[in-house]
Specification:
The structure is a single chain. The protein is mainly alpha-helical and 320 residues long. The chain has 13 helices and no strands. Helix 6 packs antiparallel against helix 7 and helix 9 packs across helix 11. The longest helix has 37 residues.
Length: 320
């Protein structure tokens, strides 16, 4: 009996060890933990490695399924708890781990789940909902701190300005506090999107998947327009000078609309003969006149969402 149990246990261990999903989860989790620790401990290039931490998680999820990305997040969290600190592990889980897993799971639960090209609509909405939820949770957790989230952000801004040798001018501090939380949410959303695209590209090169998900074909559902509208209402009724949370919620929820506008512009210019020059000029204008051009792109994205452009109710996006 004991020998049979030992033999069965050994065979089960071999099956687990040879399962590519488990191997991908373990390797991705350890890689993400190393990249995160490299950044947290201020090693050379740590600022870059920290932003690359979600890439192994996306590679596991896109290439090997939802179970692999969940396992990878768990392995990374345990490794960070064992080698790092509970605060670092919690930050990794909240900023990169849980959002990466949620994006992969959402893409695999759409109406075209299981096809070569997953439906990215639900994942696209999460690029705004998750940062906005992070702002709301941070505001709740810091509600007992003097000044709440705005007070914590003010302290961080003043400390950053003093380190750069700049005087903490009141007007500058106020403006930075109003947008700092939204800026963090924006860069986290962009990091998740860029890492997901890079991970899918690497998986195609390695032959693990046959085609990249059509990120530029992703469309927000019409109901998403209600979320920034509600956030705008909260911001308009907020008291002047204490609207950092409401403004951050609005700006975080507008990030997917901005990305939708960029994708819609790419689609609209698809048939133009001078398309590379048009796109190059548009991105140059976005860099030079960031705010007005970004507002125009966001407005175009909102128009495209509400207008229901072609392909919204049709077949899934074509493979590329």
């Amino acid at each position: 009996m004991a020998a049979d149990s030992t033999r069965q246990g050994t065979e089960e261990d071999r099956r687990i060890a040879s399962d590519p999903r488990w191997l991908a989860a373990g390797a991705a989790g350890l890689a993400a933990a190393v990249l995160t620790l490299w950044g947290f401990r201020g090693m050379p290039g740590g600022a870059l490695t920290l932003w690359l931490a979600p890439m192994p998680l996306f590679m596991a999820g896109i290439g090997f399924g939802a179970g692999a990305v969940i396992g990878a997040v768990g392995v990374a969290f345990v490794a960070l708890m064992a080698v790092g600190s509970s605060l670092g592990a919690g930050l990794f889980l909240g900023v990169f781990g849980a959002p990466a897993a949620a994006l992969v799971l959402a893409s695999r639960r759409g109406p075209h789940a299981g096809t070569a090209m997953p439906d990215l609509a639900a994942s696209f909405t999460l690029l705004g909902i998750l940062p906005a939820a992070g702002v709301a949770v941070a505001a709740w957790l810091l509600s007992d701190v003097p000044g709440g989230l705005e007070g914590a952000l003010r302290g961080a801004v003043e400390q950053a300005l003093s380190r750069m040798g700049l005087p903490p001018a009141e007007g500058l501090v106020v403006e930075l506090v109003r947008v700092k939380a939204a800026a963090i949410g924006f860069w986290v959303a962009m990091a998740l999107l860029i890492n997901a695209a890079a991970a899918s590209g690497l998986l195609v090169r390695l032959g693990i998947i046959t085609a990249r998900p059509a990120f530029r074909e992703a469309r927000l559902p019409a109901w998403y327009a209600l979320l920034p509208a509600l956030a705008a209402g909260l911001w308009l009724v907020a008291d002047d000078g204490s609207d950092a949370v409401e403004l951050s919620l609005l700006l975080a929820l507008m990030v997917p609309v901005f990305l939708h506008g960029l994708a819609a512009f790419h689609r609209a210019t698809g048939a133009l003969r001078g398309r590379p020059m048009v796109l190059g000029g548009a991105y140059a204008a976005l860099l030079i006149m960031s705010v007005p051009v970004a507002l125009a792109v966001t407005g175009y994205g909102l128009f495209d969402i509400l207008n229901g452009t072609r392909g919204r109710r049709g077949a899934p996006p074509p493979q590329r």
